[in-house]
Amino acid sequence: MTQAATHKLNKAGFFADMGYSPHPGQAAVHDSTALRRVCACGVRWGKTTAACMEGLAAAMEPKERSVGWVVAPTYDLCDRVFRELVHLSMEHLNHRIIMNRESDRILKLRNMSGGISEIRGKSADNATSLLGEGLDWLIVDEASRIKATIWESHLTQRLIDKQGWAVLISTPKGKGWFYNLWRLGRSRDDEDYESWNSPSWDNPMLDREFIERERTRLPERVFEQEYGAKFVEGAGAVFRNIQACATLEGIQPPSDGERYYAGLDLAKTEDYTVLVITNRRREVVYYDRFHRLDWAIQVSRVKKATDHYNYARIWVDTTGKGEPVFEALAAAGCRVEPYTFSAQSKARLIDNLALVFEEQAIKIPTADAWPECVDELEGFQYSITPSGNTKTGAPSGAHDDCVIGLALAMWPLAIRRQGESVEALFL
Fold first, then answer.
1. Helices 24-31 and 47-60 sit at what angle, rounded to 10 degrees?
2. What is the rounded CA–CA span in Å between residue 201 and residue 41?
3. 249-255 contact pairs (CB < 8 A, 24+)
4. In 10, 21, 116, 377, which residue has its Cα 20 to 30 A from 319's Cα atom?
5. Sign of CA dihedral 99, 102, 103, 105
């Protein structure tokens, strides 16, 4: 009988050696023997720390060889957990590191019996990378943002032959497959599943008074989701009534005497340049989306479209690369208005667009006619950064170019609190 077969890691002792003292909620996760542990907890509760410590404990388990994965919706999110594993290993287990290739997201450690434990970081948006080997353990971060098919068709199979365990961590996001797994673990109808649902303030290291101040800064449904860890349908959505406003069949021809307003979000390589033209009734009459074109070609394309719509006035982002394009558009004879982006000015722009949708004072093309815009609007969300700040934007790895172009087109038709429009300022 090998040494690996006769010894088992003392997890509590290992945590103490690592200088880790889990709070009661984390301790309950560590004490569980369920093969599928589902943590639907508020931001800063300590989900990532608990998952990392479970992963390192598994990597130190005496075995000839073990393999564990960290999976997240994108590589950027995966790095949050993987780099924490690397940091902890370098700080406390440096003498056991065999290989650390952060660029490839591979960490190899010498475990307690002298065997090799491998940890890899994976992205759920690259399904082909999730094929292959059997796993001893798996951490799924931001699980609620991963498609059900990834969990069902690519991840669970990796755990079968080694009877591996999985820890799925996330703040709640609606009531999809992650919610169903959480309910399964909550009921304990399946002994392989156990679940936890705790608000942020259950972490004794956090200041409850500070968290309560955040309540006044966020929509209530967003606070309840992000901090209260409640499964609230549509809680993180910035825009409502999207489908009710998506009624137009597509591009409409210009009308004589009509005034038109355009929003232009610029990009040259990875993102898209989006041009949106609307009339005074806030009906989107024209849209164009393209990328990887030289600036001269983009300027020509924008000018042709806006000239066609009665020389529509254009609101364009003049931040960074936008400034020379703004100047080129002006030199070409376009009627351009600058909009410089900052955290505050972008918030005002998005708030106005959200209000327009809230009051159903806008009409956009249907999902069949303009699927990219409807998808971006539905995916645009409130979120809490790892530092605890609130932001709005597209999920990591997704685009928001149509949203910004549409928001810029709506800016000259902004709805003020008194119900008046600022359109007259630009006539």
1. 40
2. 10
3. 249/365, 249/366, 249/369, 250/365, 250/366, 250/369, 250/370, 251/285, 251/286, 251/287, 251/365, 252/283, 252/285, 252/286, 253/285, 254/285, 254/308, 254/309, 254/310, 255/279
4. 377
5. positive
Question: From CA 87, how far away is CA 105, in angstroms rounded?
Answer: 13
Res 4: pLDDT: 42
**Tokens representing 350?**
């998005």
Fold of 242-426: Nucleotidyltransferase; domain 5 (3.30.420)
Sign, CA torsion 396/139/195/41 = negative
CA atoms within 13 A of residue 331's CA, in its CB half-sphere: 9
With the C-alpha atoms ordered 408, 413, 418, 424, is the resulting torsion angle positive or negative? Answer: positive
DSSP secondary structure, 248-309, as one string: E-S-----TT--EEEEEE--SSSS-EEEEEEETT-BEEEEEEE-S--HHHHHHHHHHHHHHT
What's the pLDDT at 424? 42
pLDDT digits (tens, 9 = 90+) for 134-184: 999 999 999 998 989 999 999 999 999 999 999 999 999 877 899 899 999
CB 173 within 8 A of CB 222: no
Q: What is the architecture of the domain spanning 3-226?
A: 3-Layer(aba) Sandwich (3.40)
Of residues 176, 196, 175, the one with CA closest to residue 34: 196
Contact 330, 306 (CB under 8 A): no
CA dist., res. 122 & res. 78, Å (int): 7
Return the pLDDT at 276.
98
Question: Which H or E run contains 72?
Answer: strand 65-72
pLDDT tens-place string over residues 27-36? 999 999 999 9
The domain spans of the chain are: 3-226, 242-426
Helix (H) or strand (E) run with residue 52 in it: helix 47-60
Residues contacting residue 190 through CB under 8 Å, at least 6 positions apart: 184
How far, in Å, are 319, 333, 340 from residue 323 at the CA level? 6, 16, 9
